[in-house]
Structures are given as C-alpha cells and as structure tokens.
Amino acid sequence: MKDKGDGFRLQIPNIRELWSIDPNITFLNHGSFGACPQAVLSIQQQLRAKLEAEPVRFFVREWEPLIDESRHQLANFVGADEQDLVFVPNATTGVNAVLRSLHFCADDELLTTNHEYNACRNALDFVARRSGARVVVGKIPFPLESPQQVIAAVLEQVSSKTKLVLLDHITSHTGLILPIQELVRELQVRGIDTLIDGSHAPGTIPLNLPDIGATYYSGNCHKWLCAPKGAAFLYVRRDKQPEIRPLTISHGANSPRTDKSPFQLEFDWMGTDDPTAYICVAEAIKFMGSLLPGGWDELRRRNHELALQGRELLCDALKVLPPCPESMIGSMAVIPMPQSWENRNFVSVRDELLDNFAIEVYLIPWEEQPKLLMRISAQIYNSIEEYEYLAKVLRKLMVDG
Questions:
Q1: Is 123 left (phi over 0), alpha (psi -120 to 50) or beta?
Q2: Cα dist. 42→45, 47, 399 in Å?
Q3: Which residues lie closer than 8 Å to 386 by C-beta, 6 or more apart?
Q4: d(CA 184, CA 214)
Q5: Residue 275, pLDDT above cutoff 90
Q6: H-type helices in 79-136, by residue range?
Q7: CATH level 2 (architecture), domain 7-33+293-400
C-alpha cells in the first residue's frame, strides 16, 4: 500500500471534519467504541473493493503480507516482538481466548477486582463455573487517593491457591490507570500469571508490553488508536503460546508450515472474514501520529490535559471533589454525580442529555457511594467548549431537579 507520509498531516483548521461524527452532537464518549477517521475508512474501503474484485487472489496471495506489515507496525507501537502478537476482533475476544484455553481445577482461585469490565468478568465467571474454580474479588475503593490502594486491594486477596489474576489496565467504569507494572511484578514474585485487559490503553498511554511483564495482554485498536471497528490484539508471552488457542479452531491447527508459529497460524486464519480492519491498524497509527507536530507523545499529552480540564469544569459545576489523583487519569475522566442524583435512572439521564441537549456522554451506575458516575472522553477532535456546554447543562438540570 502506498505510503501516505506527510499527506496525512492536518491541512484544515477544523480537525473534527476529519471524522464522520455528527456535527450536531457534542460527542464526549469516544471511549465506548472509538471513532475512525475518514482517511482510514477510505483506505479500508479501497481494500474491501480490492478483496471483492478478486477474492481468491486477495485471500490466497495478498492478505497475509498486508496483515504481517500491519502487525509489524503495531508491534513497534506497543514495544513488542511481532512474533508475540496476533490480531483479534476486540479485547474481550482476546481475554476469552486466554481464559478458555487455560485449565483450572476446583481448588484454584481466579482473582480480579470490583472495577473489572463486565464482559471480561462474565468470561472469568464462566470458566470458573465450568472448572469449579473460585472467583475472588479485590475491592478497590472509589474515590481513592493513591495507586497504593489498588496494589493493597489486589495483593491482600492473593493466596496459595491463586492461579491467575485478571486486571484492567485502564478501568472502563472508573477511568483509572491501574499500577499494572507494579502489580505484575509483585504477582510474578509469587508465581502467579496475569491477564491484562488493556482495552483503553493503546493510544492513551505509552506501552512496552515486555516491560510490563504480563503473561497475557489484550488491547483494542479501534478505540484510542482510531482503527476501524473489529481490530484488536492479543499478546502472549512466548513460553505460554503453545497453550493458547483461538475460540475458533480452523486450518491452522494442523498446518505443516514452519515459517510461522502455530500460535500465529491458528489466530491469523479462523475462517473467511473481512481482515481489512486489521490491515488498517498500521494506517491508523500513522494517521493519528501525524496530526500534531509532536506525534503520538503530543497527542496523548493533549488528550490527558483536556480530560483534566474537563474534569475540573464538571466537578466545579456539580460541586463535587475529583475522585482520584491526576496521575491515574489518561484520556478519560470520571466525575461522581452529587448525592441528590443517586435516585435518578442513569438511562433516563443519558437519554435526556442526548435527546434534549445533543450531548453524548457515558453514565454508569456504581455499587457504592457515589451511586452514579459520569465518564468523559478527550480525543483530539474534542474542545474545552464542549465540556463547558455540558457543565452548563448539568447546572440547569440540578436547578430544575
């Protein structure tokens, strides 16, 4: 594929025009599903046209080198060896592939936290019920004052029966960057494997997967990397790869090829599918890194600072305190809603904001005080004026009751 080079650099003043997002919506929920730039979608459409023009040629001769090149660029971005990465449709699929490949017994304990993403917690519960293993939950407080509270909440639940720990790198509901590297190190000392759900991490914080040291790591590319939907990756430490099988067993299971590992041969081809989202990951990394003079470092810093500014505005408007240190925030920030809102239905509030004020923002019920949380996202197409507008609307809703 042609190298776009500097052709990807922003040429127009309104950066939001590079996306297809409805201009009438104040879109503050990039974190849920991401949003793919038009330039990357255009490349994907070209690939799809090429696929459909000659499907046999594409699948027999062309797709694998394109996948390999995209994986090479992704490996560089996350600091990994490309031999240790495979593409999967989403981070949840990667977590499921690991959990359903491993074998547990009735005496085993599988440890997670009360901040774990619901889909992955369901997968953990499924394999526990199937094997008779027990799920143990570390209670991370929220609000909290320090990453040390996270470390303490996890380690105090470790026992001689703990076989695996499942952790979010950045929590979905509370937007916390967990101290994953420190936790992995402490768990490794105890001989415990770690499975990290890195759904929000790629593109939000710098990654070097070998330095993190997790046994398994699954991350999305369609969120903060802004690749097309259906693009994610699974990293598996080299010594563990023979154990991990894809959810769909296909031709790779008995492939005679020796140029790639069985791990990649199995995951790379699980049956006829549209691989263009995977191929476009490299294009998304290049595109997003070209938007600001400082590349990805400047983009991540800009989004982090905007998330903090938005949080400050909203906390002031709602007269609540920030629930965590600034160091635990990436490109998302969570604001605890006032106690007077705890009986409001989160779906009703969400729908009112969208239907009456054209604001798309994430609201989450929480198990303890505060009972209702609001999560804002900050992507390059967002501006401080959007959070000011949300703050104004929330003040109005507080007055109106």
A1: alpha
A2: 5, 9, 46
A3: 26, 28, 310
A4: 6
A5: yes
A6: 91-101, 118-131
A7: Alpha-Beta Complex (3.90)
